[in-house]
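Entry:
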Amino acid sequence: MLKGTITRSTVANLILIAVACVFPLFFLGQSYIFTVINFILIYVIASSGLDLMFGYSGQISLGHAGFYAIGAYGSALLSLKL
């Protein structure tokens, strides 16, 4: 690939970033929708990590559950204290 060329994946990533930046403007003042979208994205991140470990490599990892638990605990502490 030549330096400075724009591929389809680059254009797709730029479009995805633009949509992600504009998306919240359509739901201003609706905190429930933001909460649901945040939970969906958190579960997507957790399940895609497990998909990579279990599906493609065939390995079993319990580290994902530990990191997920640490993140949930830290998030709960931050929301209570701050």
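The two ends are 48 Å apart (CA to CA).
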